[in-house]
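Record 1 of the preview.
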Amino acid sequence: MVENTSKFEGDGKVILPIFYYVKPNDVKLKTPLYSEAISKLEQEKKFSSEDITKWRWALTEVDSIKGWELKKYSGHGDLIKSVVEEVLINLKTRQRDVTRDLVGMEDQIAAISNLLDIDSGGIRFIGIYGMGGIGKTTLAKIIFNQLCPQFGRNCSFLDNVREKAKAKGLVTPQKKLLSDISYSRMVREIDSIDDGINMIKKIICNKKMLIVSDDVDEGNQIQNLIGVNSLHPGTRILVTTRDKSIWNIRGFNYRIEDYEMVMLSDEDALKLFSKHAFNCNSPPANYNTLSKDIVSTARGLPLALQAIGSSLFGQENKKIWEERLEKLKKSPHEDVLGKLRISYDALALHQKKKKFLDIACCFIDRKKKHGMYWWKDCEIGPEDAIDVLIKRCMIKVVDDRFWMHDQFRDLGRVIAKQEHTRLLSSLLDEEKIICELKSIEVKYDQI
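->
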């Protein structure tokens, strides 16, 4: 057992010693119980000296592993309970919690599995990108749970990298990675990002790894977590992000296969909404039309469907459903706004935010060239900002026209209204527009 786990470290096998009517000192050969028995076998020369030496070594190794002593428990039942709990922890510790309400993920799971091609050699690096709330993390968790048994202890799921890096720096996820792959002793020695980089380089270059870095927003986070040229053949890396421009890493030696998440179909969207609103796969007949109308406002975005459905669960008053529908036609659900606002706030430069709001309020379904001419006439260079918005999945150009998901569109219009920076004739009647202009004029006169 000891030889097996030593030679094939990382294959998931561990020894959990139970000292059953023996003491650790017996196993250490500090008492006659084992030492005399082994010496007797040695004298009888029934086994080779090499075998005897291995046995002594194995017993010493086992004793160094934390185990259970029967005498420290009130009875066999308590000992068994403790052992079972530890075994369950070892079996489940790598698995990530995934919602039971999975809908419309089969094709995307198959696509990522195909890109990873787990049975092939070499190294595969997959980047999953898409707008906030589309299900990137859920997809990554599913793939991770499927594959981690094949990597044993050499797998790690680093969640919320963006938030953790912002709050405490990358040292935290670096320590998590090292701790996950059973190098907890070394974690205490990391005092800086450079320490973490060097430690990770030394370790993962010799191991076939499965690593998921979730919600990454900068290329240097990839470099500092997994290095640029230190991966072992057979390693599989998954990264989720809202911004696919992070793949451009200078000096990175691996090709990143990117995969864009897609929205749910109308059928799957209704099913996901129904699971949260009615706890079943389809709405009751008397709520069917109303449910479809509400689902249409989410445009296939899983986060919106879950948030809206959960907020209506158990609500039988149809008037409230109708009011909610009218509200959703004007503005997304609060949870969705908060999630999407992260992408907007990450647009550090004012000009990029300005173009996002311009498109949300004025240029959706308009030809791209019209917006480009307008910005250039205003002496605002548009190319860089448009490129950033596309790479961050906030807009698309389809058939040379600007396209934006309805939830992002509504976010932009909410922000524009709050900032009093744009007037939307489609959303305001003539009287309200005049009132807004007068309000702005009064504020201007006061300055």
